[in-house]
Write the structure tokens for this entry.
Amino acid sequence: MLNKKVEDALNAQINAEFWSAYLYLAMAMHFESTGRAGVANWFKMQFKEEQAHAEILINYVNQRGGKVILKPIDEVPESWESPLAAFQHTLTHEQKVTALINNLYAIAEAEKDYATCDRLAWFVSEQVEEEDTAQQLIDKFKLIGNDGMGVYMLDQELAARTFTTPSPLAGK
Ligand code: MG
């Protein structure tokens, strides 16, 4: 059974993951409308990944006999001045999510809820990857600048991203 403090904190994180999903879907829709299909595809896959993050936590709360409470999802921005700006926003957003996960881990640890710490350990590693991926894409966009061929090739690379079911959801 989950204690109330941990349950509330997990529910807040479920909302944060859905907000992330909404943010990346907004980015996908923005770049879809500005003719950047590859960038739009990358953010669409990111949207699916964030939904999967929420689902992992939802399954966990249920498994522990808690109750998932779905709160309203706050508004998200609707446009970004360039793909570089969107990936910079992605990095600062993921840094904030990392802080949320760390805070959640600290709450579970203080409550001696080691099962929750164990589940959250997957998210701790995931955040390292999220920040690293965003930083790598920022570097690439800076490197190519306005070079048409570079922009075209990077768009092809982003267009190739597919969704991979995160391991905690595999087989569910
Ligand atoms: Mg996430």
Q: What stands out?
A: Residues 17, 20, 50, 53, 97 surround magnesium ion (CB under 6 Å). The chain is about 75% helix and 0% strand.
